[in-house]
Amino acid sequence: MSRQYPIWNDTSNNSYKSDKSHGARESTKTNVLIGSSSNNSFNFVTHETRVYTDESGTKHFEFLLDGDVIKSAFLIRGSKEMVYGINWKHNQ
Predict the structure, then answer these.
(1) Residue 1 falls inside a structural domain
(2) Residue whose C-alpha is closest to residue 26's, from 48, 4, 6
(3) Average of per-residue pLDDT across 54-64
(4) Residue 33 CB: number of other CB atoms within 10 A?
(5) Under 8 Å between Cβ of 84 and 73
(6) What's the total number of domains in the chain?
(7) Residue 70: inside a domain
(8) Of 64, 60, 63, 65, which Cα lies nearest the Cα of 83?
(9) Could you tell me the pLDDT band of residue 91, with boundaries at 50, 70 and 90?
(10) How far apart are CA 62 and CA 68, in angstroms?
(11) Which of 3, 11, 17, 87 is the most buried (most CB within 10 A)?
(12) Beta partners for residue 31, in sequence order
């Protein structure tokens, strides 16, 4: 017997061959669909989290909502403190 969900999460991660709940080395992206079931659903929002290291060794973390960076954080090489920033861009 299959279950019907009004919220459906389609998650992808380039660290694994298949989609599942997991950690990520570079990025993770989730397309959230809404409706009455997985077969009758509509795109609602896409969110993505990614990380990269620059030439100085600083790690940059970004959270994107529908392609816009809305929050970022930096971990400077050798530091144990995270620096946070918010970049909210609301399109109307």
Answers:
(1) no
(2) 48
(3) 93
(4) 19
(5) yes
(6) 1
(7) yes
(8) 60
(9) very low
(10) 10
(11) 11
(12) 10, 46
Is residue 25 exposed (0-12), middle (13-18) or buried (19+ Cβ within 10 Å)? exposed
Locate 73 and state its tokens: 């954080």
Q: What pLDDT does residue 13 have?
A: 67
- Per-residue pLDDT reduced to its tens digit, 24-42: 888 889 999 999 876 788 9
- Which tokens is 91 given? 């399109």
Would you state the structure tokens that stand for residue 72, as one six-digit string? 């970022």
Tell me how far apart the alpha carbons of residues 80 and 76 are, in angstroms, rounded to a whole number.
8
pTM of the model: 0.74
Nearest to 31 by CA among 15, 7, 51, 50: 7
Query: What Å distances lie between residue 90 and 63, 64, 81, 87, CA to CA?
Result: 14, 12, 29, 10
Range of the domain at 17: 7-86
Q: Is the pLDDT of residue 57 over 80?
A: yes
